[in-house]
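Support reply, case 0932

Customer input (verbatim):
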Amino acid sequence: MDEVIEALSQVGGDAVVDISKTRGYIQREEGRALGRAEGLEEGHRRGRSEGLAEGRAEGRERGVRIGMQDGLRDSLRILLSARFGAIPDHVVVAIEAAEPEVLRAWIAGAATASTAELAFEGPGSRG
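Our regenerated output:
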């Protein structure tokens, strides 16, 4: 490029000025394009990293919630079978469908109830 400028300087000053301006413009545009590309790459990297961290946190939270709910279900089944014997199928189905707050109420009821049916009366009953 310098050779071209040197050759044109012999032709006339205006040509050199125009080429110098064009050269500066091209260099600025190359710099801007490179900056945008680096910015996009950094943004993508940062977004991916934040997205992965958020996904892991949500997955961990969901796993804890499911584990807790499974633990409540197991506790209720163990308590009912220990106190009252075999658990009827309709009760097993109800336990599987119940939310944690309902399971907690049923566990409390099962701990003090005189019959399996009475364990499901109270705040957690459905009906």
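We compared this against your earlier run and they match. Two observations from our side: The radius of gyration is 37 Å. The chain is about 80% helix and 0% strand. Please reopen the case if you see a mismatch on your end.
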